[in-house]
Amino acid sequence: MLIIGERINSTRKGIREMIAARDAGAILNEAVSQARAGAQFIDVNCAVTSGEELRDIEWVIGVIQNGMPGVSICIDSPDHLAIERALSAYKGTGSVIINSITAEESRCSKILPLASKYGAKLIALTMGESGMPDTAVERAAIAKTILGRVKAAGFPEEALYFDPLVRPVSTEPGQAKEFLDSIPLIRAIGNVKTICGLSNISFGLPNRSLINASFLAMAIERGLDAAIVDPLDSRLMSSLSASRALLGLDEYCGDYIRAFREGRLGNKPIEIG
Ligand code: THG
To answer: Count of domains in the chain?
Structure first.
């Protein structure tokens, strides 16, 4: 299971302020703490900043890779120019994921060549020209269209992650099931992977972390390959450990037991020796 840390996102007021103040220490701390908590990639989104997204994303990436040269990043932007700027700013020794393309032709034709040029992995939202699909079957159909475009551009399908788009269960109660059902349908169209931003599921509800953690367990059982989450949410990360153990994805529960010993399952660390 690939974990992408979501916290460096300019929709969050605190992050907007750190970027505006060019507070490198605070941004680096957000990246380091997410990596320590188990994030393999750090999502960077500067789209809601001062109107200077290109300059901001270049600065944030510079700060993170100076402090963590091996860091892997997920470039999260609706603007292909910001994605290009971020790709050229990245000098780290880790890997890069571009977040994201959709079925929209113009977006694919700009971003696919960049993904190939920089050897990046790619997230594709299952969103058509006409907006968000309602059913699992529609999500898989859009994924198929995108897969055709991606293959035609010579991009390797195993580096492609489809995001079937989670919607709030509080306002659209049928959507959680459609999302979950779409995971195996999408994985069946080729040698492709699935990913989602999890926290939308709990929008508008109290105790969001409980809903997020429970939904993550369900999605992992259906085959979800990666998730964009807050890795500092210990309930979520505990649920991830337990789910992997229960599904035989953690041989002899070694990771689960290690997480317990280190006090990462919501328990106090036990004394050793
Ligand atoms: N799929 C893909 N990329 C994504 C998303 C997705 N990128 C953005 C988003 N969704 C995932 N990232 C975040 C980052 C921060 C928060 C939520 C999702 C967050 N939200 C606070 C909340 O929901 O209460 C509000 C923000 C605030 O004002 O503090 O922190 O689905 N491919």
So the answer is: 2
Task: Give the number of other CB atoms < 10 A from CB of residue 154.
Answer: 9
For helices 136-152 and 175-187, what crossing angle results, to 10°? 40
Residues 56 and 109 in one domain: no
Count CB-CB contacts under 10 A for residue 20: 13
CA angle in degrees (0–180, nearest 5) for 115-96-67: 145
Atom of ligand 1 nearest to the CA of 76: 7
Give distance in angstroms: CA of 242 to centre of ligand 1.
24
- What is the rounded average pLDDT of the residues 153-165? 97
User: Any bridge partners for residue 228, and if so which?
Assistant: 4, 197
Query: End of a domain among 21, 38, 70?
Result: 70
Q: Which atom of ligand 1 is nearest to the CA of 195?
A: 32
Model pTM greater than 0.70?
A: yes
Q: Closest residue (by CA) to atom 10 of ligand 1?
A: 197
Alpha carbon of 5 to ligand 1 centroid (Å):
10
Tokens of 255: 């990771």
pLDDT of the residue at 209: 97
